[in-house]
Amino acid sequence: MTAHAQTAHKITITPLDEKVAVLEDVPRESQYGLKFVGAAIASPATATEAGYAACTVSLTGRGVDGNAAAAPGAQGSAFWSIGIEMARKEGVLSLMGGLSASMVRELVYSGIRMGTYEYFKDKLHAISKGALSREGLLLKIGAASIAATIGSALANPADLVKVRMQAYYPDGSPYRNMRHAFASIYREGATLAASRGASVLAGGLGALYRGVEATTIRGIVLSATQICSYDQIKQSLKKRGMMQEGVPLHLVASTFAGLFCSITSNPVDVVKVRLMNDKKHEYKGTFDCVRQILVKEGPFGFYKGFGMCWARLGTHTILTFLIFERIRYLFGIEAM
C-alpha cells in the first residue's frame, strides 16, 4: 500500500458500545454541517417520541393565561389529573395541540443551539488562543449561550404559535392549524398597529416576536445548564475512568442534565408563557411580568408546574441526547 493510500484512510478507534472506525479525514466544515443535521433530526424526533402531550399539560398547569393555574395541592393541579381532564373535556387530540408548530420550533431552535454548540466552542477557544480551556465551564457556557441566543431568537414566532395552540379555550381553539395561527397572530398585531397609526408590518412582526426577550433568556439558561452539564458530566466521568463512551454514559449524563435544566428553566418558562398569552396586554414587558408574579404569587409562583416541567423536559433531554449521539455515531462523527 502506498503512503498516500495510508494517509487517505487513516482511522481512529472510538469505543461506542462496540469499537467503531471514525474517519479523521472528514473536513471540519462537513463535521459541523453533519452535527447541525443530527441535532435538527434528533430534536423534532424527540418532540414526537418524548411525550409531546406532557408539554401541553405542562403549559396548561402553569396557567397560560396567567390565572388558570391551580395552586400547588389544589384540585386538578396534579400532572395526570390535568391530562385526564383535558382528554375528557376536549378529546385526546387536545393533548397534541400545536404539534406542527412544535416540530418547526425544535427544528430551528434545537438544531441551532445543539448543532452549533461545538462550532462556537472551537471558535471561542481559537479566539482566546487557548486561554479558555476546553475542560473549563467558561468556554462551554459561552458557546452554549451564543448558540442558544441565535436559535431562540429565530424560533420565537414558531414558539409563540405553539404556546397559543396549546392554550385552553373554553369555546374551542380559534386556530384551525399552524398556518392559520401564524396568520391570525400577525393580523392581530397589524390591526392594533394600524389603529395606532403605526407600521402594519412592524405591528405584525412584533406580535409574532412578543416575549422574545423571555424566550432568549430561557434559551440561554436552559442551554447553559442542559448542554453544558451534559458535556461536563460526560467529561468528568470519562476522565476519572468511572465510565466509557457509550449509551450508559449518555443516559447518566442526560438524566442529570434534564434535572438541572428543569430547575433553572421553569421560572423563565412561566414568565415566557404568560407573556406569549397576554392578549390583553396586562404586562408591560418581561420585567413587569416578573414583578407581578412575585408580588401576587410569591417566589413559588415561578415554580408552578415544576413536576410537569421535569416530566416533559427531563424525558426530552434524555431522548434528545441519546438520539443525537446515535445519529453522530451513524454519521461517523465522534461522540459529543
Automatic annotation (TrEMBL):
Keywords: Membrane, Repeat, Transmembrane, Transmembrane helix, Transport. Pfam families: Mito_carr. It is a multi-pass membrane protein. GO terms for cellular component: membrane. Its main location: membrane. PANTHER family: MITOCHONDRIAL DICARBOXYLATE CARRIER-RELATED. Belongs to the mitochondrial carrier (TC 2.A.29) family. This is Mitochondrial carrier protein. It comes from Pycnoporus cinnabarinus (Cinnabar-red polypore).
